[in-house]
Every structure is written in C-alpha cells, then in structure tokens.
Amino acid sequence: MHLPSNRSPASEIREVRCVCPGCSLACVVSAMKNPGAAESRRLLGLLDGALVREARLWKVPVFKNGRIQGADISSSQHQEMILWLGEMSRLFQFCPETFALGVCVLNRLLSTVKAQPKYLKCIAFTSLVLAAKINEEDEVIGSVKDLVVRSGCSFSTAELLRMERIILDKLHWDLYTATPVDFIHIFHALLVSGHPHLIPSIGLDSGVRWDPAPEPGALPASPGHQKRPSDFQAALWTRQVQHCMACHQLWQFKGSTLALAIITLELEALTADWFSVVTDLLKRAQVDSVEFIHCKEMVDQYLHSLEFSLPANAIYIFDSAQIQEQERACSPVQHLWKARRGRGGGGSVQGDSDEYYDGFRCLYDDEEVNQGAEGGDVKHLFDPQQGKDVSPCPPLHPAVN
Amino acid sequence: MIVDLVRSGLSPSGSRAHWFHTLQVRPRGRRGRSNSDPLGGTGCEGDAFTWGPGLQFRAAQSYLSLEKLGEGTYASVYKGISRINGQLVALKVIHMKTEEGVPFTAIREASLLKGLKHANIVLLHDIIHTRESLTLVFEYLQTDLAQYMTQHPGGLHSRNVRIFMFQLLRGLSFIHQNRILHRDLKPQNLLISYLGELKLADFGLARSKSIPSQTFSSEVVTLWYRPPDVLLGSTDYSTALDMWGAGCVFIEMLQGAPAFPGVTDVFEQLQKIWTVLGVPCEDNWPGVSLLPNYRPEWFHQSEPKQFRAVWKRLNQLPHKTEDLVQRMLTRVPTDRISALEALKHPYFSTLPPPIMHLKDMVSIFKVPGVRLETEVRDIFNPGRRIKPSLLLPAAKCW
C-alpha cells in the first residue's frame, strides 16, 4: 500500500471540505458530521468515470476447452502467470493498483492477439512494467534493466522493450482503465460516506476518536494515529480482489462486479443491514444482478478454497474440500442459505428474516426462472428450523480493535 | 467601455486589420476548428491531398519535419507538416533511452491525452513508434504563453488576461472532471494559437487520480508554481495543486513577471509565499504543523499583505480581479477555489454569456464578441503606437 508517512488527523479533517478526491478517512469524518451531499456527488462522479472507462476498455480472453481461444495458453498457465505477477509486484513494492492495471493490460492483450506460450511470461512482465510506468511515481519504478534482473527472468531488456512496443501498438496506447482495485476503493469510500451507520460493524471504527474540530494544541500529541483505520478494511478487500484476479473463473466478471461481490460477502457476514446497502451500490454501479449473484458465489467459493477471506478469525466455517464439488450443483438459493447460516446466531436477526427473504426473491427472480427444474417451494430453504442441525458459527468481527 | 463597443459590434476603427498583429494575420471566418491548417481550409484541400496518396497515420514518412521549436529534457519539438492532409503539426520526438524503453512521461502523456478531447487541451493527432524513436504528433500552435509574455512585456491587456484565464480554467475544469491532475502548469506549457486559443499541453507529469485516498510524489511542478502545501511535503494533494499554478499564471499575465520567482530551493520558495500570505500556523491552517517541511522557526515572521499592495497591477483593476486571485492563491488547499467555481466568478461576468455553455470541443472564439485585443506593448513592433483615444478608455476600464 501506498501510505503516506506524514499524514495528520488534522490535515485529513481539512480535506472534508475538499471538492476533489481526498482520503477515505475524510469521508468517514465528513459522513459522521454531515451526510455530505457534495462528497457523495464527488464519489458518484468518480464511480461513473470508472464505469465509463471499464465499459470502454474491459476485455478478457475467451477460454475454450481450458485454453485461450486461438492461442495455446491454458487457463492454469494464465493463472500461474497472474500469481507470478503478484509476486513481482510485491517484490518491486508496487501498489496494488499497479498490479491490477498490469493484469488488465495482460488480459486485454491476450484477448487481442494470438500469443504463443513461450512469450507469455515476457508479455505478462511487460504489462506490469507498463502499468508501473503509468501508475508509480518514477522514484519507485527504478530502471527497467534492474527490474528484469530482480525478476530472475531469462529474457533480455531488448526483448522486453520490443514487447513494450507491441503492447502499446496493439492496445493503441490506450492503457488507462478502471481496475477491480479501483472499484474496491471507490465502493469503500461510498460505503463509509453514504452509510455511516455501517462504520462500527464493518470495522471502520477502531475506537480512535476523530474529533473534527480538535484543539490546535492537541494535534502534535497524536502523531501515532496516522494510519487510518478505514484503510484496514480497504486493504483487506484489495488483497481479496488481487487473489480473485488470479482465478480464471473470475476473469469473466468485470472489475466492478467482482469488487462489489467481495464487499457484499463481507457485509452480509458483518451487518444485518447489508441488503439495502448492496442494492443501492448495485444500482449505482449498473451491475447486472444475475451476473452479480453468480460472481458472488464463485468469489465465496474461491476465497474459502484459499482459506483466506479474513485474517485470524474467519467468518464462515466451511469444509473447503467439499465446496468444489458441491458448489457446481449448488443453486443460488441454497448458496444464500449457507451464507445466512453463517451469519445467524443472534436472535434479533430472526425477526428480519422475511424482509431478507423478500429481498432475495427480488434478486434471484431471474435465476429462479432458469432453475425452474429445481421447482417446488424454495421457501423451506429459509426455514430457520433447517439450520438447527448444523451448528451455526457465531459472527466474528475482524480483528481491527 | 471597450466592452460596450465590441458588444454593439463597433470594433474600434483600424484595429481589425491588426487585431492580433503579433502572429500571422489571417482572415477570420473561413477557419475550421483546427488552427493547425496552414493552407487555410477548404480552398487548398485538393492540393494537400495530392501530396500523400497512400500515406497513413502511424507512419514516419507521413510527416515532414520543418524546423526545431524547442528542446526539453525528455523530447525535442519540431514544427512539421502532415503529408496526409497538409496540416501543420508539432512533432514531439521523444528521446529514447535504449535500456528503459518508452519513458513514463510519454506513456502517460499519450494514454491520458487519448481520452481527453477538448478545445482547451492540445490535440494528439498520431503516435509514431519505431524501434529507434517515438514521436507524438500534436496539432500545431504558433506560440506559448511564456513567449507571448516575452513579446508583450509589462503585463498583458486586462481583457486578454481574462480570455486566457477563462480558457485555462476551462481546460483545467475539464481535466479535473476527468480526474486528471496536470501537475506541471506554467506559461511554457500553455500553448496559444494565432487566434488567442489557449491549450493545456505537456501532460508528461500528469496523473489520473481515479481512486479516493491516492497519494503522489511531492516532487512535482516547477518550483515557482508549486503550492505551499506541496512545498511543505504534502503528498495527498489533488486538483487544488493545479489551481495554485493557475493563480500564479494569472498574476504573471497581469504583472508581466512571475508571482513568486527567482529562488533555488523549497525553503526560499516558501519564504517568498509567506512574505505575501503570512507564515501559517495551526490557527489558520489546522494540520500544517504536521507536514514534513514545516519549520516555522526557519521563516521570518511576516504578516499577510494585501495582494494589490504586492502586485500593483491589481490596483488598476476592479476589485473582483483581486478577489479571484485571492481565492486561487490560498494557502490551505481545501479552501482554494475549484476550476469550475472559478469559471462562475464575477470576474468573468463581462464575457458574453454563451461562453458558459459551449460543448467541449468548441473554442470560445466561436462566440460572437470574443476576440483578443491588441497588446499595448510589442517588442517585435516597438514603433507602433496605439491611438491615444483607444488607450484612454482602456486605461479607465482598468
């Protein structure tokens, strides 16, 4: 992450009035103090801009029989390559946005040209270097030659530069796109500014008092609070999205859909109030709900298979070995039931269950038509009794405090 | 008064022929949108096209290099001509370091400009990329603001300042809406056409700030035009960065001299600023003491001064001019006026109203009544005197 070392609570609080992209804590403070219409407008503008760029430039290779259509690259080769890019990005201390942009460039190229497997690594690495040239300040990038040496790759700088020319040419120098990581940041900021009541439950409130009008004299006394608590959540989601970008089943989803799926999974588990929040974001991001549900399931599956979803105290406990097979046959409704089971526990949640259920019905309407074969009354799936034989895992909050 | 004359369509006698004598004189009216068309548009198109049958974009032989216009650290700029359509172009030939590939400045400039089409942003026509060289082909503009100010020393005509400022802010407002920070505003990077169209150029340091809470290097913007928050080491700057630079350019156009010039390091630069605005403290800038370069003891204490006392030209102009400058040259970045707000400032209320509702690609010179005034001083034409009758009302106007 690209955290400034010299951030002060006070300077962030000044940002509250900022009309320009500011920091997310400012959004929190602003949202707490006043619902901040201007701030929401700004963030929605940011979201719209990102959606436009995504719509214009988002492109991923099509897989047929486990291989990229027209090329001899298998999905597992591709996946390995993206994981390796993640390693490289960490090695060079690039920020997650750079990794994400590099992957977007790689995917766009692979969907544009027929690449041979022997060039795959060079293409991937060059994509990352291009992303760094765009995204990182020049003091971070260092020399290209040095990057090649540190990567341990066998290709020469000359090859890399030739590839650079090819990529720029094939993509018409049009490299600025909105990545899944960008969407994580934007949705996160929208959440904290638009739904301040969620802040305690999504781990944004770490007990640090952020007084918007502090005594000037008191300021220098609190330099320890420079790392913003809200960053923690965004950083966690960013890590999750980076992992998901390496999963070839998840490439087919746009970054906006993927980011929203990750955030929704977390909100579901952490707050009883997630549904209205998510529908609001879905609408704003113009994400197709069928695709969204599909994506959310796959993300859930994938993150659990990685045993990654949250640090230390994970929210759901699943038998990850069984998930792979089960999920394929699993209908969205069953899946939600599982999600609910995970969230359950608190008695107060029960009273609201009908409301949630109606919500699901809305969301899943299209799905159910397709899944007509399942037929019958799906309502029984939501019967609280059903969950009795499985011991519900109490919802655990992330270890922020 | 001049405003009234122009509005009623009675331009001062004799001024029309040399209304912008500093550059080429050319009949108005027949011109298309582009100002890089040396052959004057439709009449010569036939000729132009016979030049290059089969010539294509993205090919080096499609452009003819004419004369060198300038040399920078990362590129040389040549005047050129397109053999495809006969248009004048500016060829920015990027110095390629064999080991590093395409410089990040070129990648950012090209990929950012790809998405930016606006009357006040320089137009990128073409990119020619070979193994040995990289050339960005831009529309050709005759001069830049730095040269223009050199040619017309002692401050520009106040009405021209308004026209240039409006265009500068219009361009900034557009890129800021697109979440792009220019990060290198200075007169050299503001290109000017013979008509007076101003366009933002040199996006080599520009960045897209497309996500909240993104931070950047504080080593940006030529020192003279760098805002105090960034001089103090702030890295979470945003669009207010460019607004400070625009404020400095504003003063420079009025005064004919840079607002905060002639220093070598960050601390001297800050002292220059504090001399006018006063040394900040937590009371008037909460959080300032936490910025890395904040060392109040290193600065001579100075009280804020009236801008008109520092920059004398402001004394001769209506108060709203000083008011806009003050809103741009504000120490606390979040208090600085935005480009969009600045366009709505009363300072611009004397411009014809349709100017506020133009489409992105439409030049303000399409609006009737918008034109550049003859500058009072011109080093290329020192003998020339403006009729006293013209000068007097103008002076009163100030």
From TrEMBL, chain A:
Look up the domain of life of the source. Eukaryota
- Keywords, alphabetical: Cyclin
Q: Provide ranges: composition bias, Pro residues.
A: 392-401
Give the region (Disordered) as residue ranges. Answer: 374-401
Domain named Cyclin-like: which ranges?
83-169
Pfam families recorded = Cyclin_N
**Which Gene3D superfamilies does the UniProt record give?**
Cyclin-like
Describe the function of this protein: Essential for the control of the cell cycle at the G2/M (mitosis) transition.
The family classification in the record reads:
Belongs to the cyclin family.
Name of the molecule in the record: Putative cyclin-I-like
Organism field? Scophthalmus maximus
Provide the taxonomic classification. Eukaryota, Metazoa, Chordata, Craniata, Vertebrata
UniProtKB/TrEMBL annotation, chain B:
The cross-references to PANTHER family, in alphabetical order and at most eight, read: CELL DIVISION PROTEIN KINASE (PTHR24056), CYCLIN-DEPENDENT KINASE 15 (PTHR24056:SF159)
Molecular functions (GO terms) = ATP binding; cyclin binding; cyclin-dependent protein serine/threonine kinase activity
Gene3D superfamilies in the cross-refs: Phosphorylase Kinase, domain 1, Transferase(Phosphotransferase) domain 1
Q: Which domain of life is it from?
A: Eukaryota
Q: Which residues form the signal peptide?
A: none
How would you classify this enzyme at the top EC level? transferase
Cross-referenced PROSITE patterns: PROTEIN_KINASE_ATP, PROTEIN_KINASE_DOM, PROTEIN_KINASE_ST
Protein's name according to its UniProt entry:
cyclin-dependent kinase
Stated family: Belongs to the protein kinase superfamily. CMGC Ser/Thr protein kinase family. CDC2/CDKX subfamily.
Sorted keywords for this record are: ATP-binding, Kinase, Nucleotide-binding, Serine/threonine-protein kinase, Transferase
Q: Where does ATP bind?
A: 92
Q: SUPFAM superfamilies under this entry?
A: Protein kinase-like (PK-like)
GO cellular-component terms in the record?
Answer: cytosol; nucleus
Q: What is its EC number?
A: 2.7.11.22
Q: Which Pfam family is one of those matched by this entry?
A: Pkinase
Query: Which stretches make up the Protein kinase domain?
Result: 63-348
* Catalysed reaction, written as an equation: L-threonyl-[protein] + ATP = O-phospho-L-threonyl-[protein] + ADP + H(+); L-seryl-[protein] + ATP = O-phospho-L-seryl-[protein] + ADP + H(+)
